[in-house]
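Predict structure. Chain length: 268.
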Amino acid sequence: MSRLKAAVVQVCSGVDIAANLAGIEHLLTGQQSIDIVVLPECFAMLGAPQSVAAEQADEVMAWMASLARNLNCWLIGGALPIPDDKDPRSHAACLVFSPEGEQAASYHKIHLFDAEVSDNMGSYRESSEFIPGCQPTLVDIGVANIGLSICYDLRFPELFRHLVRLGANILTVPAAFTKVTGAAHWEPLLRARAIENQCFVLAANQAGTHPDGRQTYGHSMIISPWGTILAEGPAEGAAVVVAELDLDEQTGIRQRMPCLRHGKLRGG
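Prediction complete.
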């Protein structure tokens, strides 16, 4: 198979976990022959402390397994808070489920968003709720290798280059990028990660105003290894953004423009 059909799901999650999951199912109803589906960061709940979602992590994971089986696709979603036995904080996990409904990978967000933003929230301190991860994660889906990331990771190109050195040719970015930072940096960063790594980028973002006043940017998108935006969602509201990934075209780009082979520092 040299072509894959990918879908990124854009939502404006609230605090009702059951309603959020039902809304995602409704959005995906009728989608045909999707190979990869990416859900945004905090797809299960956004607008209250993530410890609330952590209490229902097992139920959400069971839902993900069922959805992957029903759609017969690779399902990627994160961050979902996973409790830790020794720390009151959770792991911000991007989970991957196979078309058979088996959990294939769990990536823990490495770069936590502790930053000041000129929006309704003012500041973000993810480290107060989450334990930072330390291990880049690659998923082999047979015809392609998917490198995992979550939101703020997007600003750290060394993570993505490491994933490509491991063999990634698709990069996923579940996100809850804020409206302020998204307007400034979302598209440029996504296109840069696609171009410099000659990878497809599947970016699923939250979109709208959440119950705690947080505003997210939307514009979920799928980008080609040449940096072309293949499909893009709206600024606000729910959407499913779909595009075809031509793996043969990607191979051609990497052969004609062999940046990944040339990308080594040379001494004088």
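Summary: The mean pLDDT is 96.
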